[in-house]
UniProtKB/TrEMBL annotation:
The chain crosses the membrane at residues 30-54, 115-144, 156-174. It is found in: Cell membrane. It is a multi-pass membrane protein. InterPro entries: PAP2/HPO, PAP2/HPO_sf. It comes from Terrilactibacillus laevilacticus. Keywords: Cell membrane, Hydrolase, Membrane, Transmembrane, Transmembrane helix. The lineage of its organism: Bacteria, Bacillati, Bacillota, Bacilli, Bacillales. Residues 61-171 form the Phosphatidic acid phosphatase type 2/haloperoxidase domain. Pfam families: PAP2 (PF01569). This is Phosphatase PAP2 family protein. It comes from the Bacteria.
Length: 179
């Protein structure tokens, strides 16, 4: 078990450094610094509110599922950050490149990634054609968190998992209850 854990940890650090090393590239840096905000609190709540206010029929149902998912996943995310107080990579890994004034709370799991997948997954479930646009956006937000030195790959993968899981629960159990 210990050898496996050590091997996975080394692999994760290599993946992290492989992504973070491009921090100095101006165009990539601009892209990831911009898109990362789509997973933030203001952007995800704003997107859900706009969808709730201005959509009808199945897209409105998808927005309700997104709202439920976004609301219910934040409690487990914050609990996990307390239970598993994993320091952010820029604090641990020498040579990590990161923005000025980075986040100081714990890294596991990625809240930005969880939030963006909470919002986009119901939209994809109701309208699969949207996956062409929304999956690359969600993955870019997750990748941005690694690129910016704020999360390990496993933080992002667990964030994707939580976002998708709470979306599936909202889609299958909460939305049908209301419609």
């Amino acid at each position: 078990m210990t050898k496996t854990f050590i091997a996975l940890h080394k692999l994760e650090r290599r993946i992290f450094m492989g992504i973070n090393r491009y921090f100095e590239k101006k165009l990539i840096n601009w892209y990831f610094r911009s898109i990362t905000h789509l997973g933030g609190t203001v952007a995800t709540i704003s997107a859900v509110l706009i969808l709730l206010l201005f959509t009808k029929e199945s897209l409105h149902k998808a927005s309700i599922a997104s709202a439920f998912s976004l609301a219910i996943n934040q409690i487990p995310v914050q609990l996990l950050k307390k239970i598993y107080p994993r320091k952010r990579p820029y604090l641990i890994i020498d040579g990590t490149l990161h923005p000025v004034n980075p986040l100081k709370d714990h890294s596991f799991p990625s809240g930005h990634t969880t939030a963006i997948f909470s919002v986009i997954t119901p939209l994809i479930l109701f309208h699969p054609i949207l996956s062409i646009i929304l999956i690359p956006i969600g993955l870019s937000v997750g990748l941005s968190r690694i690129y910016l030195g704020l999360h390990y790959p496993s933080d992002v993968l667990v964030g994707i998992g939580f976002g998708v899981l709470t979306s599936l629960l909202s889609y299958h159990y909460l939305v049908p209850y209301f419609f």
